[in-house]
Design a protein that fits this description.
314 residues, single chain, alpha/beta, seven-stranded mixed sheet, 12 helices
């Protein structure tokens, strides 16, 4: 039976039309102008979303207790503005030719991915930092046959449009919240010795493991560790940074080799190791992360679970 959450209806279609209307002028503007407008227009929405912005500041203050209230506020503002920059960059970058795209975004360390593609395959370990969508576009622009594991947007019209833009150069999307057994869909892709991008730094509602993340309990999906250990393939941490001139640099770190033996303990330890990259990137540049997402939504549930299962606490 179809899931009503993803059904087509009039409100969904009107939302889609609104999105297309907004995107049209963004494409026509000069690149830097579009980015500037996105930054300030979306940044201003914090004034009408006061409760969420207050929660963002609360989360930042708890994650970085050494920060002053003024510093916490500035991190929150820059993170909020970054959402507008992401939107404008994504619309602009997905409208460019590959040669023009490379004037705005590059992959540093692409040779590490090339060594894995066609031999072992690999998992790209990336989070909601700076502009993660830009790396998806860059991977295709640089000739990688990649797939991404993403959450399906409730609005089917909007979801289709996002994926059209996300895969405008090439690639495909697998759904973590809609695919029939997404773990096996990922396995089938990786068996072809290709690259699969996974973001698991957002709150998960099922299949979770509990870890301390910046000092607070959060749920994480173990799918990256499970795939890497089961298939014995490397994981490539990737972080995207934005330079002062707006140029996006996607840095590929050295591959992380999974444990050779499968066990739940090794899955937990490897997942914790991968979480360490997120924590490192957040400490380096806290405003680059998507703080608007309620990452610790299930903190109390996780604390209760770990209290009952102390052997799983890492």
């Amino acid at each position: 039976m179809a899931n009503d959450r993803f059904e087509k209806n009039l409100p969904h279609y009107l939302q889609y039309v609104g999105l297309k209307i907004v995107c049209f002028p963004v494409r026509l503007l000069p690149y830097q102008t579009a980015v500037w407008l996105g930054k300030h227009l979306v940044g201003a929405t914090r004034f009408v979303m006061g409760k969420r912005f207050a929660r963002v500041k609360h989360d930042i203050a708890r994650a970085f207790p050494d920060k002053t209230p003024a510093q916490v506020h500035q991190i929150a503002v820059e993170s909020w503005r970054n959402m507008g920059v992401i939107f404008a960059e994504f619309i602009q970058l997905s409208s460019l030719s590959i040669s023009e795209f490379k004037k705005h975004c590059c992959i540093e360390g692409e040779e590490k991915l090339r060594q894995a593609e066609g031999t072992t395959g690999g998992i790209i370990h990336i989070g909601h930092f700076t502009n993660w969508e830009a790396f998806g576009l860059a991977a295709s622009a640089y000739g990688f046959d990649k797939a991404v594991l993403a959450q399906r947007v409730d609005n089917p019209y909007v979801d289709k449009e996002i994926n059209r833009l996300r895969n405008v150069f090439s690639g495909r999307t697998l759904y973590s919240n809609h695919e029939d057994k997404p773990f096996f869909a990922c396995m089938r892709w990786l068996k072809k010795k290709k690259m699969l991008g996974i973001l698991f730094d957002q709150n998960t509602v099922s299949g979770e493991m509990w870890f301390s993340f910046l000092g607070r309990t959060a749920a994480f999906a173990p799918i990256t560790a499970l795939l890497a250990i089961k298939m014995q393939i490397p994981v490539f941490p990737v972080n995207v940074t934005r330079e002062k001139n707006g140029f996006l640099r996607c840095r590929v770190y050295d591959p992380v080799t999974p444990p050779t033996d499968y066990s739940l303990e090794n899955v937990r330890k490897f997942t914790k190791q991968l979480i360490g990259y997120y924590e490192m990137w957040m400490r380096e540049n806290p405003s680059s992360w998507l703080w608007a997402h309620n990452r610790w939504k299930r903190e109390e549930e996780g604390n209760r679970y770990l209290a009952a299962h102390p052997e799983e606490r890492l």
